[in-house]
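Hi Prof. W.,

I finally got the CPBP family intramembrane metalloprotease prediction working! I wasn't sure whether to trim anything, so I left the full sequence exactly as given:
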Amino acid sequence: MKTFLRTNGKLILFMLSLTWVGSLTVLPYLGYTTVLPPESGLTKELLYVTTVINSTINSLLAIVVGLTLGRRVGLGAPHLTGWLAGGARAPFTAKALLFSVAVGAVAIALTVGVDALFQPHLPALLASKSGEDVVPFWAGMLTMFYGGINEELWMRFGVMSFVVWLLGVTFARKAERKPAWIYVAGIVFAAVMFGVGHLAAAPAMFADVTTVLVVRIVFVNAIAGMFFGALYWKKGLEYAIVAHMVGDIVLHAILG
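And this is what came out:
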């Protein structure tokens, strides 16, 4: 444990600091989109505090999983690790960065297209949109930090790394290189969990949570999650973060 902390201490603190940025900058968006039932006894101030605390706990767990189990199956954050943990620095290219931007744009374009197919079946969703629900451009922009940093740390660095490692030790323990299906399974599982994770906010954002709405939330978010997971596998966490940020800018700021 001492060796792990000595080697990765700076990296852990840096990643955790980034998640605090994400948690704090998403609070305005939550303020505009969340309606708390009076009978719940909850206040938005309590919601904000809970959001930051839960995010910190989830992020710390995900960081530890990613730095331990992820490394064993070739997953990780190569640029941050090389910079802060003394490892070999991975080559960084503008081409790879632009590719991540393109992936994020394509992922969101596809999810928006699929989401349009659900709209005729979501009268409750449409009815819940009113003038009071309009989110300012700046608040939508700020969601890119929470989505790109926090959610990618949890779902890709944490969940996906754990699933790939678990499948690896179960089905390919002796294999020097894990078969591709293990990574694909990890991508799909983390993507579905990414979609499921968005269900928690549904009651506070929509007038009626129907079966169709649940399917829509999980499926649409899972599509984007699979793109981000593929980037995490092939390029690293940093590129998945960039793609997710681009997606959130388009979805929450430009499209609103």
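Residues 2-254 form one domain. Does that look reasonable to you?

Thanks,
D.
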